[in-house]
Amino acid sequence: MRKAIVLLLFVFIQLALFSQTHLDSILPVRGFCIAAPKPRGVDSFTKFIVEELAPRKVNTLILRIDFNYEYKSHAELVDTLALSKSEIRKLVNACKKNNITLIPQLNLLGHQLWASHTNKLLQVYPQFDETPHVKMPEKYEWPNPDNLYCKSYCPLHPGIHQIVFDLVDEICEVFETNAFHAGMDEVFYIGDDRCVRCQGKDKAELFAGEVRVLNDHLAQKKRQLWIWGDRLLDGKTTGIGMWEGSFNNTHRAIDMIPKDVVICDWHYERADKTPVHFSMKGLNVITCPWRTPALAIEQTEDMVRFRKQSSKAMQEKFNGLMQTVWSDAATFLDGFYQFKKDEKVVIIRHGAALGGCMKK
């Protein structure tokens, strides 16, 4: 499980030396992805956007919001310490003033449970659970006999999408955005043999069907769907493994989803060249590093090189880079500004990258 402490904030400090036009041609998307701040941290995170992200020419910010917003459409799903509309407005205004595209993420399909904590959707609507027969153990450990990592909702349940659409529409309106990140990573439970709706169905088609349903809904209001790319890679054949690739045959969905979906292709152990695979399939792709500065630099250089050395048709599919952070915003800022000393955290304040190590 990914429990992050601090970061790695890439090579943008060097890229900032380029003119805006030249920079956009090198890396059109220069993104940053992190959990949305808690209410008490909104002001400090807004300051971080203005004083740290903007000067480094970051132009895309993804905030993992999930159920930490005061939804009006489904108040029963609001989690504790949720952000208000006025608090999100501060983040929206800071991004607008600095030409940063702000995109909300709500984990859909998978990640409806984290370790021993069930997320609000399945807490309130347990009937949506793809695997209700898989019960939480008294003490969670991985690996386990049930292959329980994160629960999924059943994509064929007749009641799921009206609720999902309400949430997606509301959070996109609050964020004033034309893009939405649906997560959809690390889906281990899909097409379960004991699900009365999904049993016996092609897992790739089930995954692709959910992508299409979400994409079609967003397209009605001219919004773009972003997802993580791991379920579209064959983890067995490539040797990438069950986390950054699929072991349950969802990878074939890559040929079944709309070509306008943006793929966030994350790799944290090696600079796997999978952006080329996504581009050759006609999909827009963004490479996503995490905690290793040298690896992030290599992934950035790969993306620049892919754009430079590809055909015009493929070149346009290599969209750029997005740094991922897997801690909460407050912990990240503490490490970034060295408010709290941690000998296991390394912050490089100058040079090619602002970096650090994260503890799992």
TrEMBL record:
Hydrolase found in the keyword field: yes
Gene Ontology annotations of biological process type: carbohydrate metabolic process
Classification via InterPro entries: GH, Glyco_hydro_20_cat
MF terms (GO), sorted A to Z: beta-N-acetylhexosaminidase activity
Keyword Hydrolase: yes
Pfam families named among the record's database cross-references: Glyco_hydro_20
Occurrences of domain Glycoside hydrolase family 20 catalytic (ranges): 82-303
Keywords, ordered alphabetically: Hydrolase
Protein family: Belongs to the glycosyl hydrolase 20 family.
The protein, known as: Glycoside hydrolase family 20 catalytic domain-containing protein
